[in-house]
User: Fold this.
Amino acid sequence: MTLPATMNALILKQDGFAPRREGAAIDTLEPYLDYGSMPVPKPGPGQVLVKVRMASVNPSDLYFIKGEYGQPRVRGAAAGFEGVGDVVGGQGLYAHWLKGKRVAFVGGVSGSGAWAEYIVVPAAMCVVIRKAMRDEDAAGHVVNPVTAWTMFDIVKQSGAKSFIFTAAFSQLGKLMAGIARDNGYAMIAIIRKQSQEAHLRELGAAHVLIQSDPEFEAKLAALCKSDKPRILLDAVANQQAADIFMAMPARARWIIYGKLDTEIPSIRETGQLIFMDKKIEGFWLTKWFKHASILEKLRTLRAVQNRFISGAWKTEVVAIVKLADAIQQLPGALKRGDGKVMLVP
Amino acid sequence: MTLPATMNALILKQDGFAPRREGAAIDTLEPYLDYGSMPVPKPGPGQVLVKVRMASVNPSDLYFIKGEYGQPRVRGAAAGFEGVGDVVGGQGLYAHWLKGKRVAFVGGVSGSGAWAEYIVVPAAMCVVIRKAMRDEDAAGHVVNPVTAWTMFDIVKQSGAKSFIFTAAFSQLGKLMAGIARDNGYAMIAIIRKQSQEAHLRELGAAHVLIQSDPEFEAKLAALCKSDKPRILLDAVANQQAADIFMAMPARARWIIYGKLDTEIPSIRETGQLIFMDKKIEGFWLTKWFKHASILEKLRTLRAVQNRFISGAWKTEVVAIVKLADAIQQLPGALKRGDGKVMLVP
Assistant:
């Protein structure tokens, strides 16, 4: 196969970080991205070139293009962290072995991005995808599912058979609901809209609380008493999240992995950290990727893939948008909010 | 020796917890304590009766009598957690072996308190004091020195050769300064008054920052850059403490062990917990006593005692107040603030 010299991509217009944080919500892509032409990237040692079939749109992508993620933007690079595609080239033994295979990948930190026709990623960040798996499931194969799997490990280690999950109607929340139920754990899901409740229960959430319910506090207190959850997995990090943490029993851990609300939370009862042995910390998948052993990673990725192939997990896609239409259509597609948005070249 | 049936003590007037938190500062003891007569407590199995020589006044005592500590008050019981005295009775083998010996002790949770002529404590919470040690050093032998020792273990495990300590002119802060210097660690001490700086440097603090210094932030930022401290040991838990934590480098841990300020802190940059792997947690000596092995405790207590006998540590006493005068004199003595206040029967 002869590779073209240039390709189309959604290209970052800005460098570095934003001066202030607004959260993942996006009304327009125009300040951040251009749809345009750029050179096809070239793989270095240990890297592969992947012809992208489909890329996913995660909250982390949106934080990143807005300059609110933990890593600086590079103007002129393609956006997008995750996707699925076919390996068409590469350097190194493993890279050569991967050639011709369909892989799920995570990239985007080396300056090459998934919202493009081609991407260069480390061969080690590719997972060969079995035939039985749909592109829709493979494109979001790593970030959310692996996050769910590793977060569930944290829940298991907590010793409690219950945990609390905010913004639970996210793709991640839906995955967590299933894995919790299938392993005999009660997920206490916090959501915004009553209309999302039935579907989330169907997916596996044992308890669903609506944020705006006037009896929210009383219901939460009752569940904290009966179920004694010790882990709060939280992508919102606002005052309500802080108050949920304060309502939890001794040895609770508030594990923050996102900042969907710009409100700054206060810790009303720091004494709980002392006398109740509570902790506040963060979760970042990149850290897990850096520190987990290869065996742990392989076991996790295999488990994730098996859940998709068996049908226990299914990616709910609400829109598939072409790269060329993304500037116009992506913000609207993201507002539907009840499933995943995918990009295709 | 014939024991009397009754004794004098500072007796708790209230039960349970206070409705709100005000911190350790005390203007008057009258709402909380009576000086009066009560029965001499009787030791149960595994307990000893100690004739108190001297009791220390720690911040934890003040929080406790105000109902702001992690354990509920019991009306009619004597106050006071810690002191030194002579074992005059007891039940059990170890208790009998202790009889006639001078011991430092921690008690006060079983309903018997140190601010009294006699106290009943578990034999296991007594440390035999060598002759060379002064009563003044022995009376505050456990809470502050053992806290300092165990906190310093946390600093050592952090991998950085520097740490930050707020409210550093406390008895605990002074102990930390010495142990840090003697082990080659740089303590960054945060204090309120310029006048305390010279003495704290003499005791071992490598860097001293004055809270109200207009260049506080710039100086802290420079030290965070040069020394890369990872541990913030904090008894204040206000917004300045939160901001110090935010200024610290990756993998910093904000370890809260007190609440000297009632201001509620906000976490302005929750993203730091995610991307910089920072953590917020508490420290409570009681938890250490519950979870540390007997060997670890013995090793710690021996090390602490050796530091006092060698003169590396010295308890600075500003006032010794009689129990009978405490209601009148203790609040004033505590306001001197530059050393420890002791109570004697």
Summary: Chain B touches chain A at residues 21, 68-71, 237, 256-259, 264-268, 270-284, 287 (CB under 8 Å). Residues 253 and 279 of chain B are 5 Å apart (CA to CA). The mean pLDDT of chain B is 92. Chain B has twelve helices and 15 strands.
